Amino acid sequence: MMSNITVEQAEEIIQSQTRDYGMETIPYDKALGRVLAENLFADRDMPPFNRPVVDGIAINYSASNGGLRSFKIKATQAAGEAPIAIATKNECIEIMTGAALDDGADTVIRYEDIEIANGFATIKNIEIKKGQNIHFQGKDKKQGDTVADANRLITPALTGLAASIGKTDLLVRKLPRVVVITTGDEMVSADAVPSPYQLRRSNGVTIQSVLQLYGIRADILHLNDDYNVIRNKLGRCLEEYDVLLMSGGVSMGKFDYVPDVLENLSVKKLFHKVKQRPGKPFWFGRHENQTLIFAFPGNPVSVFMCLHRYFIPWLEKSLNIKSSSPQYAILQNDIHFSHPLQFFAQVKLGVNNQGQLVAEYIESNGSGDFSNLVYTHAFMELPMDKNEFKKGDVYKVWQYDF
């Protein structure tokens, strides 16, 4: 049980608790945002036949190479029709983009480069190259080749690729069962009219929205500051879910019951309090049945930072996602931070004319200033052993929007 630990220590402890939740098969059109758990293979050559990439005429190159410029149009072939053969070298086929070329045709001339009259197509004064305007069979992939490897997020492009190889069911990594739990008597629903001393709840839907990017449909529960109610509800949640994501009730106030309740429910505290701003009171533990509890402070910016700095990397490692975080960016303005804590500064990202990622610090009014997140893209992680951070310095950034 650790208290007042460093960011690096917190990260190490959390990463040591990654889980494998197994695999399942789901329809490809329901798989967006999930993690592919199998390699995908081409069921036939890609493309499966020689096909023109323009509308025009198909000829045999040897005829034009021999000086022939005018060809009798034998037929017109649309995409999806059986290939039409060229009987003699002075013939051509009018052919549409994507149609299957007969083996006797090896060159395609665009409509823009020909003139058609009296059943003949005459090529204008242009250079002709053998094989031009043709996407050849197997050029992209051969039958049996890997077209997508496992452990990548399923994107719209990958969904389309699965459809093209007839893979209508995909093996994906199972997602953890997650419940988002907010606490606090002062918090009312978003559609309520709050009293002068109340606030509308936002943390729950914020966390839920971030999880949707990974295909997780988390449940949401709100608990008022009542010890017995919190104990009963958390006891049930520990049995029904793999992960509890909580906000509020973990600081030092008289009504911050969450740490005590979790201890009484056989949850082992792995740490409480991290030397960071925002999010210092962050609590993390593991139930005896292996359910994990990420209990964030209640301030919205603290929740947002802890979610992206700790939970998302844990989730991506558990799902075996090849993550691109963190990145590094060049600071564009000076920052002074005098506290002995690791500061996560809200920054606006951009790209300079050398193609480098740059970050402009946008000062906020503290961890309750949720509105500032709308105008920023990432948290820049600044080392604890410094107080002055200068323009031109390079630090890690944990991106949440860009």
Which helices and strands occur, and which strands form pairs?
Layout (H helix, E strand, L loop, with lengths): L1 E4 L1 H9 L7 E5 L12 E2 L9 E2 L3 E4 L1 H5 L4 E8 L13 E5 L11 E4 L3 E4 L2 E4 L10 E2 L10 E3 L7 H9 L4 E5 L4 E6 L3 E2 L10 E2 L2 H10 L6 E5 L3 H14 L2 E5 L10 H7 L2 E8 L1 E2 L5 E5 L4 E5 L3 H19 L8 E5 L3 E2 L5 E10 L5 E5 L16 E5 L5 E2 L4 E6 L3
Parallel strand pairs: 1-19, 6-7, 14-17, 14-18, 15-16, 18-22, 20-25, 23-26
Antiparallel strand pairs: 2-13, 3-12, 4-11, 5-7, 5-8, 6-10, 9-10, 19-21, 21-22, 23-29, 24-28, 25-26, 25-27, 27-29
Helix pairs in contact: 1-7, 5-6
Distance between the termini: 37 Å
Q: Structural class, from secondary structure content? A: alpha/beta
Name the CATH homologous superfamily of the largest domain.
MoaB/Mog-like domain
Helical proportion, percent range: 10-25%
CATH topology of the largest domain: Molybdenum Cofactor Biosythetic Enzyme, Chain A
